[in-house]
Specification:
- This protein has about 220 residues and is of the alpha+beta class.
- It has two domains: about 80 residues, no CATH class; about 120 residues, Cytidine Deaminase, domain 2 (3-Layer(aba) Sandwich), CATH 3.40.140.10.
- About 45% of the residues lie in helices and about 15% in strands.
- It is built from nine helices and five strands; from the N terminus they run αααααααββαβαββ.
- A five-stranded mixed beta sheet has the order 2-1-3-4-5, with helices on both faces.
- Helix 6 packs antiparallel against helix 7.
- The longest helix has 24 residues.
- The chain is elongated, with a radius of gyration of 21 Å.
Length: about 220
């Protein structure tokens, strides 16, 4: 039965309007993004099928266009709509960091970095450059590496911080392995960056490791 024939109080869009997005299941939210099902399957049923095929909502979102479009009932337009929705969420969080004190919004910082880095198949090293009031000046992907390591050059980071007239910086990188523990190299790099920026009175506020849905803070661990 198509969703248009369902009782109004059970349709995903109507439920979102009346009860809010957080009242919907993963499949119902995905169905709204997909917009339509396929012959014999409603959009909600198709969404259930997709989540089951990939094993989780996170794996579905992280899938490339080829593997996503290989699934029955969806194509490039559906994949593009899903990626656009994720990017809008990330940009909304980035706007929040631009407007206010990043130190007063640690949850927004973590959410932003998780959306940005969580599903990368390779390591990426990024920097959030802040002004003297801890408002976001720029969020840059500084270096990109392989599955297990990234080469980071402090001189390039110092140059970028000076260019932006930054007063502080938060570093982050991901661990595609899913292990959030910092390596010896991670600790040594953080200290090297702190020493490089200290003479310029640019503070290293934190270094975060994103591993799946886990985020480890060097500051919270007393490592900065």
């Amino acid at each position: 039965m198509p969703i248009t024939d369902w009782p109004a109080d059970t349709r995903p869009r109507e439920r979102l309007v009346s009860r809010g997005a957080d009242a919907l299941s993963d499949a119902e939210l995905l169905a709204i993004v997909l917009r339509s099902g396929r012959q014999g399957r409603s959009a909600v049923a198709l969404a259930h099928d997709l989540i089951g095929r990939f094993g989780s909502l996170q794996a579905l979102i992280a899938s490339g266009s080829r593997s996503f479009c290989d699934a029955p009932g969806v194509g490039f337009a559906s994949w593009a709509s899903l990626q656009a929705a994720i990017e809008l969420a990330r940009r909304t969080l980035r706007e929040e960091l631009h407007r206010g004190d990043a130190l007063q919004s640690p949850a927004a910082v973590r959410a932003f970095l998780t959306l940005w880095l969580r599903d990368r198949p390779h390591e990426a090293f990024v920097g959030l450059f802040l002004d003297c009031r801890n408002r976001l000046l720029a969020a840059d992907e500084l270096f990109r590496g392989t599955l297990t390591q990234t080469a980071v050059y402090p001189r390039e980071i110092v140059r970028r911080a000076i260019e932006l007239n930054a007063g502080a910086v938060v570093f982050a990188h991901n661990h595609p392995s899913g292990v959030a523990e910092p390596s010896h190299a991670d600790r040594a790099l953080t200290e090297a960056l702190r020493r490089a920026l200290e003479p310029l009175e640019i503070r290293v506020l934190d270094h975060l490791i994103v591993a799946g849905n886990r985020v480890l803070s060097f500051a919270e661990q007393g490592l900065v």
